[in-house]
């Protein structure tokens, strides 16, 4: 079993930022970017945080707090897979709906 690295976790956070159209950087021009996903370190573990407000407050989209790198790696993959599945399902639903749209005749 390979060791999970900081680089791998940061790559997943970047992928999550791209996929959700969230800011790629924590700060821009001295201003905190709300919505940015990043890795937090505390209590000897790691956690996925998302910046929640301009004061730097965060939320933890994956409950459970700080954990091992391996556990966070697995949780983030599951989270990303769920988001991608939802996006694919949404696209398929929109396309299926478009197939059933029938022009309504205009009554004059």
Q: How would you describe this protein?
A:
This protein has 108 residues and is an alpha+beta fold. It has one domain. The protein contains two helices and five strands, in the order H-E-E-E-E-E-H. The strands form two sheets. Strands 3-4-5 form a three-stranded antiparallel beta sheet, with helices on one face. A two-stranded antiparallel ribbon has the order 1-2. Helix 1 (6-19) packs parallel to helix 2 (69-100). It is elongated, with a radius of gyration of 19 Å. The N and C termini lie far apart (72 Å). The model has no long low-confidence stretch (mean pLDDT 90).
Summarize the structure.
This protein is α+β, with helices and mostly antiparallel strands.
